Amino acid sequence: MKYEFWFVVGSQFLYGPEVLETVERRAREMAAKLTKVLPYPLVYKVTAKTNKEIADVVKEANYDDNCAGIVAWCHTFSPSKMWINGLAALQKPYCHLATQYNVEIPNEEIDMDFMNLNQAAHGDREHGFIAARLRIPRKVIAGHWTDKTVQKRLGDWMKAAIGVAVSKGMKVMRFGDNMREVAVTEGDKVEVQTKLGWQVNTWAVGDLVKEMNAVTEAEIDELVKIYEAAYDVATGDTAAIRYQAREEIAIKKMMDAEGCKAFSNTFQDLYGMEQLPGLASQHLMAQGYGYGGEGDWKVSAMTAILKAMGENGNGSSAFMEDYTYNLVPGAEYSLGAHMLEVCPSVAADRPRIETHHLGIGMNEKDPARLVFEGKKGDAIVVSLIDMGGRLRLICQDIHCVKPILPMPNLPVARVMWQAEPSLTTGVECWITAGGAHHTVLSYDVSAEQMKDWANMMGIEFVHIGKDTTVEGLEKELFYNDIAWKLKTL
Ligand code: MN
Questions:
Q1: Distance, CA 8 to ligand 1 centroid (Å)?
Q2: How many whole angstroms separate alpha carbon 297 and alpha carbon 276?
Q3: CA-CA to 13 of 20 to 30 Å: which in 98, 220, 248, 454?
Q4: How many Cβ atoms sit within 10 Å of the Cβ of residue 469?
Q5: 113 C-alpha to center of ligand 1: Å?
Q6: Residue-wise pLDDT tens digits, 170-216
Q7: Angle at 15 between CA 9 and CA 21, to 5 degrees
Q8: How close is the Cα of 294 to the center of ligand 1, in Å?
Q9: For residue 338, how far is its CA from the centre of ligand 1 (angstroms)?
Q10: Whole-angstrom Cα distance, residue 363 to residue 358?
Q11: What spacing in Å lies between the alpha carbon of 412 and ligand 1's midpoint?
Q12: Roughly what angle, to the nearest 10 degrees, separates helices 217-230 and 238-258?
């Protein structure tokens, strides 16, 4: 998909054709210059002067799959009743860029003509009112359009809007059900399809095995070469690597045939398979597919969405699981990993392919997997849970460190982090909010982007950051509960 965003500029006939020509010329210039620095093109569409022009551009945006959102601005005053019909029909993400063409007020030049042409301060307030009045989910970004921070924030919002487009087209392929008795990986598939657009359906493990058996040795040779180019081979068990390649090729063929961008499986249902896909799942994630272990289709879809929101449309985001803590005072860290399946996009160095025994599940042979340490840097962890009647997205700020121990006998990829506001208060907040043990850990998607995404999807958002307290969070969750009950009445 070649995503783009549409620049819609509000005005009216009152000022005469000369002003309107100037507005259009400047809007085209701004869109062209911004396109050079933004992650996606900003395409000038219209200087809107009538109800019909606005309703028409919104209708066109709604039905154009390439249009990932509308950026609106009022160079002049634009009476907002003419926006009501269009905004009421809007189904695309919407950002109000409260900017102006000029940076400074020109002391000598300024007169009433200048004021009539350059009155965004006036027009953007009128425009803001109608979106508030209509309760439209929106992002408001204020500042000069050439300002680096403004451009970065607009770019970040665009990526969150891409997350909306990817979510609305998301198809998840499930192999096997959720792990027996686990609660947090469950969820209402009708609700997620209604709210988030996800199509979550199941395919038989037997069909996957059939597809695996049809994979040729030549196809496996080719993929093994790709593995060898990207990773160090630290095992003599080439059969295990080739088996993972066979699994990857088969899973990818099935997903691509169905248009699925994410998948889940469970170690409790590997009937006819020798190994749980490890390296296979990891390399699929490296290519942008989402994955969730133990049948966790929610985290799988979220992984694919955060990846698409990241740098270059496939960022440093990974399916993750909180495993164990280091609770030494002054060195308090969480250790995250998974049985096998951690995406190498979060690796600090070149990953190694290793084979080890996996006691859990029904593995006949030792599965090959990538082993590495996660990189240092600020990140977030994100968990989507089903509260019964509504979805809650929980996001926590974390700081990843180089793992403080080499852990030579741990045969899986690992990431270590400090959580905000501190490890223990952070854990208390996470548990209070009901966050899962499975998360998406991302280095290049921010909490603000996840808030924007949740806002655009119409779901609850809970942020645990440096200023969060347990008491404050408890109140927020209590009020949210009431608010969401009123909202869904
Ligand atoms: Mn797990």
A1: 45
A2: 17
A3: 98
A4: 12
A5: 65
A6: 999 999 999 999 999 999 999 999 999 999 999 999 999 999 999 99
A7: 55
A8: 6
A9: 6
A10: 7
A11: 13
A12: 100
- Residue 419 in contact with residue 427, Cβ under 8 Å? yes
Q: What is the pTM for the complete model shown?
A: 0.97
For the CA atoms of 241, 244, 246, 251, what is the dihedral angle to 10 degrees? Answer: -160
Question: What pLDDT digit, counting tens, does each position of 32-68 carry?
Answer: 999 999 999 999 999 999 999 999 999 999 999 999 9
CA of 185 to the centre of ligand 1 (A): 9
CA of 169 to the centre of ligand 1 (A): 25
Note the pLDDT tens digit of each residue in 378-404: 999 999 999 999 999 999 999 999 999
CA distance 144 to 137: 23
Q: Measure 122 CA to ligand 1 centroid, in angstroms.
A: 53
Preceding amide of 344 cis, omega within 30: no
- Cα of 437 to ligand 1 centre, how many Å? 7
Structural tokens at position 311: 């740098």
- C-alpha 365 to ligand 1 mean position (Å): 20
Question: Ligand 1 centroid to 131 CA: how many Å?
Answer: 42
Q: Is 46 left (phi over 0), alpha (psi -120 to 50) or beta?
A: beta
Q: How far is the CA of 265 from the centre of ligand 1 (A)?
A: 11
State the distance from the centre of ligand 1 to the C-alpha of 58, rounded, in angstroms.
Answer: 43
Distances (CA, A) of 94 to 7, 247, 321, 351, 485: 10, 41, 34, 40, 25
User: What is the CA(289)–ligand 1 centre distance, in A?
Assistant: 17
- Beta-strand (E) ranges in 191-257? 199-203, 232-233
DSSP-derived secondary structure letter, 371:
E
